[in-house]
């Protein structure tokens, strides 16, 4: 499969719309962490400057017809109901950044990109919903380094790493995990995910999980298989409830009510750019 390139997508720009969906906290927190390592007293000011520079570079390269920056809510969500320790070890947003976040969002607004904030929905699910609803009539480019978005990739949905300045396409994921990216939720359900505080199936490591998923693509198929080593099969059956829960948590929702139309996020480049 040929790698995705910006020039290849730009050739289709006149045929379909193009929507960029920015994973807000993925970008902002990484930039803030880098800035605060060098100088804490003006980290927020530097973060604001670098965020606007990054956004400007993204819109110049990808030429969107629509754009939206999506931020996580602060309240516990449905995943915490399924797993009490979900993301329990993740550090909270630094207080200085939390106070300055509105300033960053305002700067994005001045650049023609609105922000979507939800009290209880995760940005992952909001972006997944937007991608699902938009990809029938537009190309979607998700701006994030989060490998969880690999599950959304299709000929119409792409992912761009704005730090490495490259597409994270199907070839990227296959080389990284030896799996199609659509299999990553089940792969991580098996091996666990430290970033989500999700424990995997005891006795199943990455090598075993990859081997299994190269033959079986669903939980039901894994549980029905009669050629899996008995020791592994027993572990899967004994922990199947955990496996189903993990998979549900790691699969993004695509049917969240949004309450706005695509015309509301049409990108209008700031006149001074």
Itemize the secondary structure elements and their pairings.
Elements (H helix, E strand, L loop, with lengths): L5 H5 L6 E7 H15 L4 H20 L3 E6 L6 H5 L12 H16 L3 E4 L5 H12 L3 E6 L13 E5 L4 E2 L2 H8 L6 H8 E2 L4 E2 L6 H8 L5 H6 L5 H9 L1 H11 L23
Parallel strand pairs: 1-2, 1-4, 2-3, 4-5
Antiparallel strand pairs: 5-6, 7-8
Helix pairs in contact: 2-3, 3-5, 8-9, 8-12
Task: Give the name of the CATH superfamily of the largest domain.
Answer: 5'-nuclease
Order of helices and strands: HEHHEHHEHEEEHHEEHHHH
Q: Hey, roughly how much beta strand do the residues contain?
A: 5-15%
Instruction: Tell me what the CATH architecture of the largest domain is.
Output: 3-Layer(aba) Sandwich
Largest sheet: 6 strands, mixed
- What gyration radius follows from the Cα positions, in whole Å? 20 Å
Order of strands in the sheet with most strands: 3-2-1-4-5-6
The CATH C-level name of the largest domain is Alpha Beta
Instruction: Identify low-pLDDT runs.
Output: none
Structural commentary:
45% of the residues lie in helices and 12% in strands. By secondary structure, the chain is an alpha/beta fold. The protein folds into two domains: 181 residues, 5'-nuclease (Rossmann fold, 3-Layer(aba) Sandwich); 72 residues, DNA polymerase, domain 1 (Orthogonal Bundle). It has a six-stranded mixed beta sheet with strand order 3-2-1-4-5-6, with helices on both faces. Strand 5 and strand 6 form a beta hairpin. Helix 8 packs antiparallel against helix 9. The model has no long low-confidence stretch (mean pLDDT 92).
